[in-house]
Write a structure and sequence with these properties.
Elements (H helix, E strand, L loop, with lengths): L1 H20 L3 H16 L3 H14 L12 H19 L1 H4 L3 H20 L4 H27 L1 H28 L5 H4 L21 H18 L5 H14 L2 H18 L5 H19 L17 H8 L59 H10 L2 H17 L3 H6 L5 H8 L13 H27 L3 H13 L9 H17 L16 H11 L3
Keywords: Membrane, Transmembrane, Transmembrane helix
Protein name: O-antigen ligase-like membrane protein
Organism: Micromonospora echinospora
Length: 534
């Protein structure tokens, strides 16, 4: 077996090298990724690591030649990983009916809504796919955490230190006013620094998703308290500010308020001093920009492929044909100008029209004309996108309350995509609803919304781990301001909460099966006699 593995590995290396020599780097990348996934699939512990690495480190704003939309391609990979992990553990864990029911609850709501308001099989499949994937992932991670608490804690601590490097990269992005890799490989210019170079995207490709990641790492590092925990806390607070994501700020403030409420008896002058020191260092790191990273002010045009495109035209071009249509699953940036979403295309209809183009793109800032402190302050003082969200809420509410069937059963899976493509919101901004709860109600009805809220409440009650509860509070608050389902890096925060909660909950810990008691020799003969007539 070892010899066959060596031969297989050597063959894959030769094949990848051959593709590289012929200039087909995408095929070489596919061979390498396939070999890596094959190695991961041999061990459930590797699957658990791979789920979080893929969700947090692979952006969905870059298309390297996926056979379908990047979000759905990565969703399929994660689904296969989790499903195979459950197959490998079937003998040990079995197929518990409660876990299966929880995993299938939201997909069942989507199917019900699709049957009541029938628009074909494709919308049901597209709408059910993310919910089914995340349900199976949560089931797999909870079961693995029950049996191997140490692995989950190691993953969480490793992610906090990984986030320090991501925060350094985010600082480089805002200081240099460029997004390396994303500017070259993003499948649409709206996911480049030409759109808004004043906000950091980390490795997520989108400031809102990076803000979600930074929020989660702050809360995990603060509650797990690993060695030198204040380093990842400070780094991610810097990243949180640089992202300019107000929804993540709200989620962080609510989660930290909840944490202080639980820890108020442990308050001390030392803790207050530590908080003041972390705040001061965070402000200094946000305000400081190394002169070597500042862009060249003498350049006539901004650097980067996307920036050149933005400055070449008087107004911003509409999304390219390769960019998917807007969907419930994608948030728009919280700036006055919002990006379209990377979601699955809506089913084609005879009356479908192109979404309304975005507003003109701001040119990439040059020099030190805009610093990060001013940008963060403007995010609080600018009410434009907040007003836009109220407009979206009124539009969604009108669609929900159309009649009793739309209130109870919704308009069907992908109904928001059909509305945004055929009707749209006439405010010149991104064609998204920007509210997970209302979008869920719009698509799947009051039944679906009640099931979603019930799952969040059930998770909060059952997962009594402090890190898990803080993540749930932050996540539940933030998704009120954007649509989450196709952003893997954002939903992974919920999955991390499930894993940490299952690892620390004694009622969910794995128990050994009771051994059958041995009967004494005289017991078997005495039992029939005792049961006879008296």
């Amino acid at each position: 077996m070892e010899r066959r593995v060596r031969h297989l590995g050597l063959g894959l290396v030769v094949l990848a090298a051959g593709f590289l020599l012929t200039g087909r780097w995408q095929l070489a990348l596919g061979v390498g990724v396939g070999a890596l996934l094959g190695w991961v699939l041999t061990e459930p512990v590797r699957i658990t690591w791979a789920v979080f690495v893929i969700a947090f480190a692979v952006p969905v704003t870059i298309d390297v030649g996926y056979p379908t939309n990047p979000s759905y391609a990565l969703l399929l990979v994660l689904f296969l990983l989790a499903a195979w992990g459950r197959v490998l553990r079937a003998e040990r864990d079995g197929w518990p009916p409660k876990a299966l029911a929880a995993a299938l609850l939201l997909p069942a709501c989507a199917v019900l809504a699709g049957l009541v308001h029938w628009h074909g099989v494709k919308p049901i499949a597209v709408g059910v796919a993310p919910l089914l994937c995340f349900g199976v992932l949560a089931w797999h991670l909870a079961e693995e955490a029950r049996h191997d608490r140490r692995t989950v804690l190691r993953i969480a601590e490793a992610l906090t230190w990984f986030s320090v490097a991501v925060a350094a990269f985010a600082k480089y992005q805002t200081a240099s006013r460029s997004w390396p890799i994303f500017d070259q490989f993003a499948y649409d210019w709206t996911y480049t620094s030409a759109f808004d170079a004043t906000r950091a995207v980390g490795l997520s490709g989108h400031p809102i998703i990076y803000g979600t990641f930074a929020m989660a790492m702050v809360l995990v590092a603060l509650t797990l308290r690993g060695r030198f925990w204040y380093v990842p806390v400070t780094a991610n607070l810097v990243g949180l500010v640089l992202s300019g994501t107000r929804s993540a700020w709200v989620g962080t403030v609510l989660a930290l308020g909840f944490w202080l409420l639980l820890q108020w008896r442990k308050a001390s002058w030392r803790g207050l001093g530590s908080a003041a020191a972390i705040t001061a260092i965070t402000w200094a790191l946000v305000a400081f920009s190394p002169p070597a990273l500042l862009p060249d002010t003498t350049a006539s045009t901004p650097t980067g492929q996307g920036a050149a495109t933005a400055t070449a035209t008087a107004t911003a071009p509409p999304p390219s044909p390769a960019a998917p249509a807007a969907s419930s699953a994608a948030p728009a940036p919280e700036s006055p100008v919002s990006t379209p979403s990377p979601a699955a295309p809506a089913p084609p209809t005879a009356s479908s029209v192109a979404p309304e183009p975005s507003a003109p793109a701001p040119a990439a800032p040059t020099g030190s004309a805009v610093d990060s402190v001013d940008v963060a302050g403007s995010r609080i003082s600018d009410p434009a996108s907040a007003d836009a969200r109220f407009t979206r809420m009124s539009v969604v509410w009108d669609g929900i309350t159309r009649d009793w069937s739309t209130v109870v059963f919704g308009n069907g899976p992908e109904a928001n995509v059909r509305f945004l493509e055929n009707v749209g919101i006439g405010d010149g901004q991104a064609q998204v609803f920007d509210n997970t709860y209302l979008t869920f109600w719009y698509n799947f009805g009051l039944i679906g919304l009640a099931c979603l809220l019930a799952l969040l409440v059930l998770l909060y009650r059952r997962l009594r781990s402090l890190p898990a509860r803080l993540l749930l509070v932050g996540f539940a608050a933030q998704i009120f301001f954007f649509d989450v389902w196709l952003w893997l890096g954002a939903v992974a925060v919920l999955l991390l909460a499930v894993a940490l909660g299952a690892a620390d909950n004694p009622s969910l810990s794995a128990r050994a099966l009771p051994l059958p008691r041995r009967r004494r020799p005289g017991t078997e003969a005495a039992a029939p006699a005792a049961a006879g007539p008296r």
